[in-house]
Amino acid sequence: MTELRNRLRWPAIARILLFLLSVGAFLAGGNVAANYLIETQRERQLEEFGNIALRRSETAVFYGISTLRDFAQRGNIGCDGGALQSVRLFVYRSGAMKDIRIVRPDASVVCAAFSETLEFDKGWATRAEMLPSVGGASRLFRVEQFFGTALGAMIDVNSEYSLVGIMSVDGSLIDVMPSELRNQSVVALELDNGQTIARTASGAVVGDDTTIRLSTESERYPLRTVVRVDKAALAAWNRQPYMPIVLASGILGAFFGLLLARSLFRPMSPLEELDRAIALGHVRPYFQPIFDLRTGEITGAEVLARWIKPDGTVISPARFIELAEDSGRIADLTWQLLSTALAELRPLLTADKNFCLSVNISPPHFVSDGFIQKLRETTAAANVATRQITLELTERQSFEDPGLAAAVVAEARGYGYKVAIDDVGIGHSGLSQIQRLRADVLKIDKFFVDSVNLDASATAMIAMLVRLAREMGMRVIAEGIEEQAQVDALINCGIAYGQGYVVAPPLPQRAFLDLVASRAGGQPAQAATRAA
Ligand code: C2E
Ligand code: CA
Ligand code: CA
Q1: d(C-alpha 305, C-alpha 286), whole Å
Q2: Closest ligand 1 atom to the C-alpha of 333?
Q3: Which ligand 1 atom is nearest residue 499's CA?
Q4: By alpha-carbon position, which residue is closest to atom 3 of ligand 1?
Q5: Hey, which of 304, 391, 486 would you mutate to test ligand 1's pocket, going by the most ligand atoms within 8 Å of its Cβ?
Q6: Which domains, and CATH codes, for the chain?
Q7: What is the structure's pLDDT at 205?
Q8: Which residue, 71, 73, 70, is CA-closest to 86?
Q9: Is 394 in the pocket of ligand 1 (CB under 6 A)?
Q10: Ligand nearest to the CA of 396
């Protein structure tokens, strides 16, 4: 009882463990995948923010420099009243420009659109300190003023003059962060030399340990944007995909776990069980005596398959022979059974050269390629004479090609084997087939034996078969004899040999050999042991 409970419990626990393991593994995988996905997505978004800020700054610089170029081409460059007037007009028209200054090529200021603003400068860069843009057509530098920082851009006009535009670039230009991160991030616009031109307002984001820094370089100007975000704020941002991914992984894991648990612990199919039984030698030969009806002497035995389960249960062939035949396992089963039977009865077969062993052969196996060859090898390996072996052609499957069947029968008999037609009277073999096959033995089915004393037609049928056999030179064996009265009736019908519980049921080797030994010399059928 406890063992049964354990047997039931362990697979169930193993299944649950396997299921949980699969769910756990998928959840862990989902967690890693979701974090990875979210992180790469975040990185891409941060990069995108840096790009947007940079593009905006580049556009502002581009418009500033374009205004200067415009002025250089069309304006009146000089410091007299009229010229300054036209400079002021340009500054006025360009929104982002605070001032335009006319400078020497070495960057020293000559005059400005709004000369008063010069006083607000805290310093002024030399030409060498200004950073050239790609191609060198313009230079950028920081202008420190009392009211803040501005960006200066210089272009050369001729050997006498260059122009400088003072552009106001404030934090709002580069304020690109989403509202969730705005207070935990800073975006700065810097020159390549590290000088800051503008930054967004938040001052909360400081320190390299707690922030993530991402800088994006301009390909046109000596500019870069630097985005700094607080790590903790970033980690909490944009985590919406996390739960769905982890949840989907969990469901997938559950599904996979179920499949795995089912496939690993599903019970074996009947065919798998049979294969296992054949491979482990659990299909064993039992022996049922064939005896002389008059003397009771055992003259031979029929090999009948029994599947012995590990717990000792004996399974009848009715439950597995059909499966073996339909699945093509019957050949392996038959050869294994025949070799074992020959080995187990070897002393008897050697001592009594008239003792005959009958083995059941399915028709398709009988006519299959190499059957006779394999039969001869098996017989030779057991060192038994071919005439001591009878092949019983069972009748559940018929011969598709009776001509071929007759040829194989002839070949087998040519080598000395005997051939019996099994289940005569109820099987597929009609009289014409019996005539055509030219076998050595007819086995009359239990069906007729059962009614031999009760039904005149059964007796008539048996008498007819006996006559047919005699004419064709065949011996007759009656099967399924259970009573002495049947023995007597069969003798009266002219039958000499029989098989049935009246002597013994199919027995395992030891019991069979004991029975043969106890009956040596012959005794009436009735005195048989009925033990199985
Ligand atoms: P079968 O070849 O006609 O074998 C005779 C069957 O009648 C056996 O059943 C035997 O146990 C049973 N029998 C014998 N005497 C008596 C009796 O007095 N009374 C009763 N009621 N039954 C008796 P079993 O062993 O269950 O085999 C059933 C069938 O399975 C066999 O019929 C045979 O067709 C097939 N079979 C058994 N072993 C093999 C095998 O190794 N190969 C093949 N191809 N078929 C086999
Ligand atoms: Ca048989
Ligand atoms: Ca039979």
Answers
A1: 6
A2: 41
A3: 15
A4: 423
A5: 304
A6: 1-266 (no CATH), 270-531 (3.20.20.450)
A7: 62
A8: 71
A9: yes
A10: 1
Tell me the DSSP string of 436-489.
HH--SEEEE-HHHHHTTTT-HHHHHHHHHHHHHHHHTT-EEEE----SHHHHHH
Does the CA dihedral 147-152-157-161 come out positive or negative?
A: positive
Core vs surface per residue 499-529: b (16+ CB within 10 A) or e: bbebbbbbbbbebbbebbeebeeebbbeebe
Cα 122 to Cα 283: distance, rounded to the nearest angstrom: 106
Task: Give the pLDDT confidence score for residue 261 in this predicted structure.
Answer: 83
How close is the Cα of 479 to the center of ligand 2, in Å? 9
pLDDT at 9: 53
Closest protein CA for atom 19 of ligand 1? 480
The answer for residues whose C-beta is within 8 angstroms of residue 136's C-beta and 6 or more apart is none
Q: How far apart (Å, rounded) are the C-alpha atoms in residues 227 and 276?
A: 69
**Ordered mean pLDDT values, 10 residues apiece, the chain (532 residues):** 45 84 95 93 90 93 92 84 87 85 93 85 90 93 89 93 90 87 90 92 69 91 93 86 93 92 80 93 97 96 97 95 94 97 96 96 94 97 96 80 92 97 74 85 92 86 90 95 96 96 97 92 50 38
Q: Which of 451, 508, 448, 434 has the alpha carbon at shortest distance from 479?
A: 448
Closest C-alpha residue for ligand 1 atom 43 = 360
Q: Is 337 in the pocket of ligand 1 (CB under 6 A)?
A: yes
